[in-house]
């Protein structure tokens, strides 16, 4: 079975803390993505990566960075967490091409609360 | 950024009813349309990927159609069951990225 695993499901962090959200996929997919889900706004793309050590900004990259040192792992980093980053974060992966003819597989999400 | 709209935002139906909802997307620079089902506390699950105008896909009681010329897709559920309760997301693929709508939240009442 296809598997995208987000290790932290629920986190509470303080303003200013550095936060790491980890994602691992076991499908040998080239592409990995981080989305953010907020009520009424749909899934918004933060960053994506199409290869190891490669990254591209999505629609809302401000306040975030990413790391992809190994093909199976894609980390989202909040350098200094702020309350407006309280949200649900979804990791996803796919084979080459962001969705054209290829299914995107999602993790179960990480709920982050910044206080 | 593409503007992908879904309607209605939420919907309550009785068990056994058939229902449908709409996804609207810009028809220019279109590559593919995705439908996902997202149950609470689970991962979004892919339902369909459609690319050609006039495409129709079916999976059990769920089906979808695509009109790329006018920029819309319909998702139909025949004989809704409580286990169909979920948020249904559509996403439109352009040359650069996949843009999601905000979803239709379906609740099927027993």
Question: Could you characterize what this model shows?
Answer:
The complex is a heterodimer of chains A (115) and B (110). Chain A is an all-beta fold. Chain A has strands at residues 4-6, 10-13, 19-25, 31-38, 42-49, 56-57, 65-70, 73-78, 87-94, 105-106, 110-114. The model of chain A has no long low-confidence stretch (mean pLDDT 91). In chain B, a hairpin with a 4-residue loop joins strand 7 (62-67) and strand 8 (72-77). Chain B is built from no helices and eleven strands. Chain B has strands at residues 5-7, 10-14, 19-24, 32-38, 45-50, 56-59, 62-67, 72-77, 86-93, 98-100, 104-109. In chain B, the strands form two sheets. In chain B, strands 2, 4, 5, 9, 10 and 11 form a six-stranded mixed β-sheet that branches. The chains are: A mainly beta (115), B mainly beta (110). Chains A and B meet through strand 5 and strand 10 of A and strand 4, strand 9 and strand 10 of B.
Task: Spell out the key features of this protein.
heterodimer, A: 115 residues, mainly beta, seven-stranded mixed sheet, four-stranded antiparallel sheet, 0% helix, 51% strand, globular, B: 110 residues, six-stranded mixed sheet, five-stranded antiparallel sheet, 11 strands, 55% strand
Q: Could you tell me the number of beta strands of chain A?
A: 11
**Count of alpha/pi helices of chain B:** 0
What's the average pLDDT of chain A? 91
Classify the beta-strand content of chain B into a percent band: over 45%
Please outline the major beta sheet of chain A.
Answer: 7 strands, mixed
